[in-house]
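Teaching note: in complex prediction, the entire set of molecules is handled at once rather than each chain in isolation. The prompt given to students was simply: 'Predict the structure of this complex.' The entities are:
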Amino acid sequence: MTNYPHATLQEYGYKDYRILQKIYKVLSVVAVILIVLMLYISIIVLAIQSVNSSVSVTNFDSFTLKWYAEMFSVRSLATAIKNTVITSIVATLLATILGTLIAVGIYSYAKKTRQKIMLLNNIPLLNADIVTGVSLMLVFSLLLPIFPYIFGPTTLIMAHLFFTLPYVILSVLPKLKETDPNLMDAALDLGVKPYKALLKVIVPAIMAGIFSGMLLAFTMSVDDFVISYFTTGNGFDNLSIWVYGSIGRRSLTPSVYAFSTLLTLMTLAIMILYQFLMKRGKKHA
Amino acid sequence: MHNFKRILLLIILVVTPFLLAGCGAQNKLLVLNWGEYINEDVVALFEEAYNVEVSISIADSNELFYSKLKSGTTAYDLIVPSDYMIEKMMVKGLLQEIDFSKLSNYDPVGNPFLQGLQGIQATMLEGTENYHIPYFWGTFGLMYNKLKPGLEEALETYQWQAYFDPAYRPADTRTGMYDVAQFAYATAMIYNNLDPNEFSEDNLDLAYDTLIDAGFITWADDQLKKSIAADNLDLAFVWTGDFLDMFYVALSEGEAYDSVSYNIFIPDTTLAFMDAFVIPHNARHVDLAHEFINWFLDPEMAYMNASAIGYATPLQNTYDMIVDYVGDDQWLNDWARAYMEYYADTPDFRGIPLANLEQDIVSSLTLMVNNVKTNS
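The expected output is the structure of the full assembly:
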């Protein structure tokens, strides 16, 4: 019996990729870091500038929190921040209440009708902001002869309601689909009045959807510029309009960086809360 | 019956917010101004004195002033556009005349407008003086880097030539131009001793050649002054007020007046602008608007207002208060010096405001400047 040499793995066509795999792994990590950095570098720079004691953006003097404190001492900026918060909160609350009711209503339709209405619901979502803004402005302008001071908080809140409502509906409907279709009938059989059944049975079942819709609506509302720009008036400016007007001739006060940083952090917190709610909602279902 | 009540409730619910919104805004003076262009303390004093609310919205360009006035969603009581826009608004009938009898502080003899400002006003259309009261004015200048040896002397000797002709300035001077086509064209015309507001095909070619020969290494806006401060650029065309804002910040951060690494040179003939109060034709609080204008014609209030803004006050008395300061306050001394150096009140200074150009001329200027940028 002759001793034939054993064929090596390489002779079978095996190639050792282990080293390459390691390199790929490192490369992919580097690439991800680079991409994320590119996406977030502007926000990071903004955050750094908000704690820079020098007004000039080219040199970092020393760490300070005074811009956060001064945010409300510039009156026009303080008013703008206040207006932003008022508008967003009122619009979000209205959108949440109306959106939930509308979603429940839409859900009770037959599937075909429901799809048609959902199409109508999705148009404002996909429509260009500027088209929405201008068309809303035209609609509100029709009321000018009766209410000369109509432009301002009223129109701004209605406009915000207009584009946040679809988000609430969109996030409540899937939750409704998850609920037992006989839930309402069961509640009625047990002797509750219809609106009580809605409040005590349906709403708790879709709470996670309502909350996530509300958070989504709030984040959309708080940073909107284009639609607000066209639909406000009589000195009721929100923050984005104020910032847009400020960058004309002079440098921005770093308090704007401070507020923007806070806003980013808040949005981040809301998004995390949103994810958390969605997860919890899934577990319960 | 039941349904009727429901419908009534619905109607009330829908209508109330409108009525509420209507009530809130009625005793408010609506002002449209440039961003950070007013001392809010002065406004607060006005509010206290007249027991009203002043709401200030901001716009970032003259064109925005025009479109906001035209769109009609808000009836502003007072707006602050610049020279050429005032002419345009007046011609289109968007303004109402100022009632000078309501302005008790208006005193063209005892407290006239500054000479430089009067020079700007003199170039404007006849009749505009009945429609506006100057608010601030300012010039454009050539900001330069003091770290570049020989540049200061070159500018003082050759003025615009040092900016446009590399032969008249130290070698390797890094120059930059404001990235607005009309500014580039107008300055090139001043350099060639032509009217900066007149447009012709020949002038366009001349401007093209001038701008190519000037050898600008950068075209930017806000960045220009920052680049000079950071020693990345030596010479650029900027707003004087913009320079002063930055200069004042440097002073307030503890730098000594003469040790700041940049300065500005104002040529004898340069571009200038004036922002003025005008009252739109559809204003609802005309009397209050006059009171507001009057408030800023008070030399004391104008002084307070000017202390927060880098541009030049229109009033002779306020100017005197600023430059005649005698005392130990470092900031007030620096301020007086800056005013005398950069807003010199001399008759030989010539500030030319920009004209309002037709859209097709603006397009051809922009095209010309883009060609300069790609070919140089």
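Point out the following to students. Chain B touches chain A through 45 residues (CB under 8 Å). The CA atoms of residues 146 and 259 of chain B lie 9 Å apart.
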